[in-house]
User: Fold Peptide deformylase from Actinospica acidiphila.
Amino acid sequence: MRHGSLPGVRGRVRPLTLLSDPVLHTPCGEVTEFGPELADLVEDLFATMYAAGGVGLAANQIGVPLRVFVFDCPDDEDVRHLGHVVNPRPVVTDGVVVRGPEGCLSLPGLEAGTERYDHAVVEGFTVTGEPVTVHGTGFFARCLQHESDHLDGTVYADRLDGRRHRKLMRQVARASWHRPA
Assistant:
């Protein structure tokens, strides 16, 4: 991205993959080429995230099985965090475990109380291959953990158990977008 340009303005909005798509349940591959195709992917991720009204989006959510995610997410103090991470690796998840409402663009219109740590640190690279470390607290820490999970083939529904999981799966089954696997 050029300095000063808004992310996503050059991108195209792509269709979102939904819960039943196998790409969401398969670990993504490492990015090995840092070039124009990767820059275009990041732009498309931002454009798609903004069009869908999200705060984060992983590449497999648009059908691309690569370890990349973008975010435009506030923390609990309403500080905006905007960026992307290529080949992210969570290095810290600690602090207090908080159960909070969590949704996902791949499960549109649904949410469930999901437990996450209130502090997270992710290391990776920028679209140009520069190392980057992203620190998150509160809601932004939840976002970092959520998007990192996506790249490992995990959706937030997989973190639920018992009654919460059964309730969410009933809602999925009734959702207009649901297509049984």
Notes: Residues 36-52 form the longest helix (17 residues).
